[in-house]
Design goal:
Blueprint lengths: L6 E3 L2 E3 L4 E2 L3 E2 L4 E3 L2 E3 L5 E3 L7 H12 L6 E3 L5 H4 L2 H7 L4 E4 L1 H11 L7 E3 L5 E3 L4 E6 L9 E5 L4 E3 L19 H12 L3 H11 L6 E3 L10 H12 L5 E8 L5 H15 L5 E5 L5 H10 E11 L2 E2 L1 H12 L5 E8 L6 H8 L6 E3 L4 E3 L5 H21 L20 E6 L4 E6 L2 E5 L4 E7 L3 H9 L1 E7 L5 H8 L30 E14 L3 E13 L8 H8 L10 E4 L5 E3 L19 E3 L2
Parallel strand pairs: 7-8, 8-9, 9-10, 14-15, 16-17, 16-18, 18-20, 20-21, 20-22
Antiparallel strand pairs: 1-6, 2-5, 3-4, 6-7, 11-12, 12-13, 13-14, 18-19, 23-24, 23-27, 25-26, 26-29, 27-28, 28-29, 30-31, 30-32
Helix pairs in contact: 5-9, 6-7, 8-12
Bound molecules: MU-OXO-diiron.
Length: about 600
């Protein structure tokens, strides 16, 4: 096979292999690629598996004719590529080996020699000139062994990518699923743990003008390279490639399977674009690993077994965690007839995994499905599919005003003075309207004393709360009225002031702005003050406190256990009752019934 004018393919296909690397099934066989670069000097790129010595040496002899190779470039020492180094060196005693220092150390261990008088050691950026072809070596440690080199031929714009961009499957059969499926299974099975190292190599590759990628397994890639590079970028950054949910399960007598089938059907009903169900005892484990990395949501369903979990599930989770499983949502379904604890065990196995979100709902099956576990399946399906449902015109809830909280609201303390005392209140609507002239809008509820003061005095300070602000700041400025209390009474020492004479918070803010009102728009419940900025100070680079950060990290979790009633979403106050009256006002923060939600 001709790769370019000067580059020929001399690899072999293996259809006898049972398990690649001793564990991966390869129903379409395996290719061990090798290449020859013709020039004034001739370079052979890597050798092949030990079962193909003569076929490969014949391939070399056949393409070389009367010529002899000058170099054997060894990019990777794993035996599927290095097994014939000694045979090559014996067949071509004039040839030299080009490899990394680490590769030569491995040769000593594998073969008892590092070919000391015939070796050329190369590292990052080193070059080898064959004539018009100039090879540049790129170190690619842990893609997928530490000694790995990739090689760039700038003349033909070819990247020899070692194991990178490889796939399962021989080259003499067409893969009915295309390139990505078996390349993905190969990637996550073999290189998945080393995402950071793959990212480092991709950054180096981005600086090269590449027209062809020649990997050590699978087809040569010479069209639409952006497609392959993009997939490698997603995979190595642990990104989510496809929308959908994977359910990986084990089932001993079929009851867990029944629950899994029920969940799968619910997920589909709720618009999940793809539901992958895999039986870890019977299906290919590494297909399941591949899918777990491909999709963003994973449901694990298994039984409690020997006070642990079913062995196939333990193996599966280990495969995930040792490959750096991260940035995903995981949900659990457990089955146990007397002491179910599979959820606890499975969850603990992800303790060291980064950026994992556990679903709030879990499914607990006691021997077989009942009404309670069926309801849990419904709740889990709803949780996992909420965004899919909202994408769908038919199932979307189109009047959910909590969408407004998704706007990047900061939280601010507006400080004022009514002529007798300093005051402040929390607001969440401060917006820069224009740049030149600089105009800022501040909305304040008309029932707040602060509104009254600003309306009267025409000046205010906006204190931008940082993420360091504790809950007591919100209690002080948000849950009581400045008409009745002095909110600065507890401040120690002199309270700082801006040039307009108004106070600002000595701590917990990242900026303060002094504003002068130039217009007011009556919005009914609120007044919108259009202001010019008379002073602006930045206190720190700590991130601004947003509404969502406050909800997740600052507001104490309300103690709701065993209680029945409603909880205030603003301050966490719990009101125990059967029905919350429409005119109810939170005794803590003074927000109305609309800001309450029922306790589960
Ligand atoms: Fe294809 Fe890492 O050997």
């Amino acid at each position: 096979m001709q790769i370019s004018n000067d580059i020929r393919y001399i690899g072999v296909d293996d259809h006898k292999i049972d398990l690649f690397e001793g564990q991966y099934v390869v129903p379409l066989g395996m290719a061990y690629n090798s290449y020859v670069i013709f020039d004034e000097k001739i370079a052979v790129m890597d050798t092949v598996d030990r079962n193909f010595t003569h076929e490969w040496l014949d391939n070399i002899a056949s393409v070389l004719g009367t010529r002899k190779p000058d170099y054997l470039v060894v990019q990777h020492m794993e035996p599927d590529h290095s097994a014939n180094i000694v045979n090559f060196m014996n067949a071509y005693p004039q040839a030299k080996i080009v490899a990394s220092d680490k590769a030569f150390k491995m040769m000593l261990n594998f073969f008892g020699t590092d070919f000391a008088d015939r070796k050329i050691v190369v590292g990052e950026g080193d070059t080898l000139t064959l004539g018009k072809h100039n090879l540049t070596f790129i170190t690619a440690p842990m893609v997928h062994w530490p000694e790995v080199l990739m090689t760039y031929d700038s003349t033909d714009k070819v990247l020899f990518s070692a194991d990178g961009f490889g796939k399962f499957g021989a080259n003499d059969v067409e893969d009915p699923e295309g390139w990505a499926c078996e390349a993905r299974r190969y990637y996550f099975g073999i290189v998945g743990k080393y995402g950071a190292q793959v990212q480092a190599v991709l950054k180096k590759a981005a600086k090269l003008d590449i027209e062809t990628i020649c990997p050590l397994h699978g087809p040569v890639l010479n069209e639409n390279l952006g497609y392959y590079l993009n997939l490698y970028d997603i995979w190595s950054s642990y990104g989510i490639e496809s929308d959908g949910i994977v359910i990986a399960y084990t089932s001993v007598y079929g009851n867990t399977k029944k629950a899994v089938d029920t969940l799968a059907s619910e997920l589909k009903k709720r618009g999940c674009p793809k539901v992958v169900v895999t039986d870890l005892a019977r299906d290919d484990m590494f297909e399941a690993v591949e899918d777990a990395f491909r999709y963003g949501r994973l449901v694990l369903a298994t039984t409690t077994y020997n006070a642990d979990i079913f062995p196939f599930m333990r193996t599966f989770i280990t495969h995930l965690t040792e490959r750096g499983y991260q940035k995903r949502t995981i949900a659990f379904m457990e089955n146990g007839s007397w002491a179910p604890q599979a959820t606890k065990v499975m969850k603990s196995m992800f303790e060291k995994s980064k950026d994992i979100t556990f679903a709030e709902n879990t499914v607990k099956i006691i021997s077989s499905l009942n009404d309670e576990s069926k309801a849990q399946i419904q709740a889990l399906a709803q949780e996992l599919c909420s965004d899919y449902e909202q994408r769908n015109q038919e199932t979307a809830s189109k009047n959910d005003m909590t969408a407004l909280f998704k706007i990047g609201y900061g939280l601010y303390v507006v400080t004022t003075n009514d002529g007798t005392k300093d005051n402040g209140c929390i607001v969440n609507t401060v917006t820069q309207l224009t740049d030149s002239p600089l105009r800022v809008a501040v909305n304040i509820n008309k029932t707040n004393y602060t509104y009254h003061v600003v309306h009267k005095t025409g000046i205010l300070n906006v204190n931008c709360l940082s993420q360091e602000a504790p809950f007591k700041v919100f209690e002080n400025f948000g849950f009581q009225s400045g008409r009745n209390v002095d909110k600065f009474v507890d401040c120690e020492g002199e309270i700082p002031r801006t040039d307009n004479g108004l106070v600002f918070l000595p701590r917990y803010i990242n900026a303060v702005m002094s504003l002068k009102v130039i217009d007011e728009v009556d919005l009914g419940s609120h007044g919108m003050f259009i202001c010019e900025v008379t002073e602006a100070r930045v206190m720190s680079n700590v991130e601004t406190m947003t509404y969502s950060y406050y909800q997740s990290n600052v507001k104490p979790k309300p103690k709701t256990e065993g209680k029945k009633g409603y909880v205030c979403k603003i301050c966490g106050y719990v009101h125990e009752c059967d029905e919350l009256p429409d005119n109810f006002v939170c005794p803590l923060c003074k927000h109305g019934a609309a800001d309450f939600e029922p306790l589960n």
